[in-house]
Amino acid sequence: MFGRILSRTLTTAYRGISLSSGQSTFFKAAIVSTNILPISNLHTTNTRHSAKVSLTKAQVEGRIKLVLGCFDKVKKTDFSMDDDLFKDLGLDSLDHVELICTIEEEFGFEIPDGIADQFKTPKDIFQFICDKEDVFE
Question: The Carrier domain covers which part of the protein (predicted)?
Fold first, then answer.
């Protein structure tokens, strides 16, 4: 498709400009060279499907702690899942939004804003993810 568009563009440009005989060879070569790559190879995609990986509670807790540990404002290296995100860990409202976005990316699903606003501790996030992903162990 790109080759066709380029070819049409160059052909239109070639027709609209009167050139000396030495310059017209360049445009002819450019138009011919657009057909070097076969068009069918440009749009090939590989799609792989697999079953969803089941999570354990320990994995969910570890991933939440990993995400929280990456925040510069979280001063504690060892924090509890019951610590308050704002009072104990030092996050503000903008950090809270960034945390939710990072959690969404980490676990691969969107958290509705109304529910995300209710997260006050890492345990709240943990409980939501366990319920959403059907984690029992």
Answer: 54-133
Domain that holds residue 97: 57-132
Element (H, E) at 123: helix 122-132
C-alpha closest to that of 64 among 127, 117, 114:
127
Helix (H) or strand (E) holding 67: helix 57-69
pTM beyond cutoff 0.90:
no
Rounded to the nearest 10°, the torsion over CA 24, 29, 34, 36 is 170
Among 122, 78, 90, 118, residue whose Cα is nearest residue 103: 122
Residues 127 and 61 in one domain: yes
The answer to which of 69-78, 84-93, 126-135 has the lowest mean pLDDT is: 69-78
Quick one: pLDDT at residue 135?
85
